[in-house]
Amino acid sequence: MHFSKFLPLLAVVASAAPAIDRRSDADAATNYIADKRSDADAATNYIADKRSDADAATNYIADKRSDADAATNYIADKRSDADAATNYIADKRSDADAATNYIADKRSDADTATNYIADKRSDADAATNYIADKRSDADTATNYIADKKRSDADAATNYIADKRSDADSATNYIADKL
Question: Quick check: keyword Signal in the entry (predicted)?
Fold first, then answer.
């Protein structure tokens, strides 16, 4: 090959070099702009991701606050339930104490009534014994009176008989004297 054959081609290439450089610069500029756009997109996406992360963090914190509020309300409800249960137990204990006192009062009333009845029975027994004693005294008095009246009547009868005997003796004596 001869060098002369390449000269026209070299001239064409040499004349095309500024155009190639300009194209290369344009491509480089395009690539630079594309890179900048890509960087801007990346920055936008980064900011969007950060915003999304911030929103997620905000939502997470809100959820945690909501969970904390729910837990606080749950604990408050449980405390309220415990207080209600304590008050319920206290009321039941109070009711049991009242019932115990009521039963104790009723037992006391029953004991008092039993003692009262026992006293009344004792009084009735004493009254019965008193009446029995009085009846016995009355019977003794009746027997005494009966004995006295009968004895006196017998003595009077005997006295009259003796007087009649004396009269008969006197009559017989007079008769004998006549």
Answer: yes
pLDDT band with cut points at 50, 70 and 90 for residue 10: low
Instruction: Please give the Cα distance from 104 to 111 (Å, whole number).
Output: 10
Report the 10 Å Cβ neighbour count for 105.
10
Interatomic CA distance for residues 73 and 54, integer angstroms: 28
Amino acid type, 133: D
Distances (CA, A) of 3 to 6, 7, 43: 5, 7, 55
Backbone angles phi, psi at 128, to 5 degrees: -60, -45
In whole angstroms, what is the distance from residue 123 CA to residue 116 CA?
10
CA–CA distances in Å: residue 75 to residues 71, 88, 103? 6, 19, 41
pTM equals 0.41
What does the domain layout of the chain look like in residue ranges? 18-89, 93-177
